[in-house]
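Table S2 (continued). Query chain:
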Amino acid sequence: MSTPTTRRAHRARTARRWTAAEDAALRAGWGVEGLVSRLQRSRIAILNRAMRLGLPPQREAARRLSLHALAARIGLSHRQLEDFLGAVALEPSAAAPVRFTSRQYCHHAIEPEPVEALFEQYLRRTSTRPAYAEERGLRLAAVETALRRLQLPAWNVGRRCRVRLPVGLLDEAMANAPGLWVSVWRAVVDRAVVTPLPCAAWLVALAAHDQLTSKRAADRAWTCWLAIRVRAHVAAVVRAVRGVTRAQRIRRADAQVGAREDLGTRGKSGSALRPEIPTSAELAPGKDRSP
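Corresponding output:
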């Protein structure tokens, strides 16, 4: 007659022991999504092993902050932070990917470095039209007129973001001197018409402008925090602007060559029709000027 076995004894005989490689993988991936499928173990087993290994909370291990803590850190409300993350195409993840509760009830966290880098560009290099007019001591109608004069759309073609424009674009519009900013913005708008942008338009415009003008890597280092889907749109805008500037250079060079050729033909025709002017020796007294 066999003795009945308890559930704990049965689990001890059938459980798979943790190896040193699995412990190393658990320490390296603690706080990252996909740990359950990578280790092929249950959530309870992973949590128990993490407690035995003395691992810190998952959010601290992944160097992330909760949305509430990050919002207080950069001076935004929780709703404003969510809108900004949608504007820059950054998605928070679960603060504790491996947990006992269901996925519906979970807190979210995100790495603070990308958010702070993009938020600094947002504050320093973009502005709304009323704020820009107030800072420059201008009337809002003057700013609107300057944008319409260059046929620039004043709305935001992105999603989940306040209507903000690059400050450089507004400066060129007010000076009525279209330059690189105007070319970049038009390329961004044309790109948004073909393919909807996953982020706000000002983000693509800033990144494309820095890619075109910044000679030092440190000046465009902030673009490394962009999401991969945003980088594809930035690269497309850069190619479009470079194609436009190259075509403009070719047309300008052709115009210069045509002008030179016109001047050359005019000079030749003028010399053929110009009457011969006698020299001073020929006009000397006593000189016979008869043929």
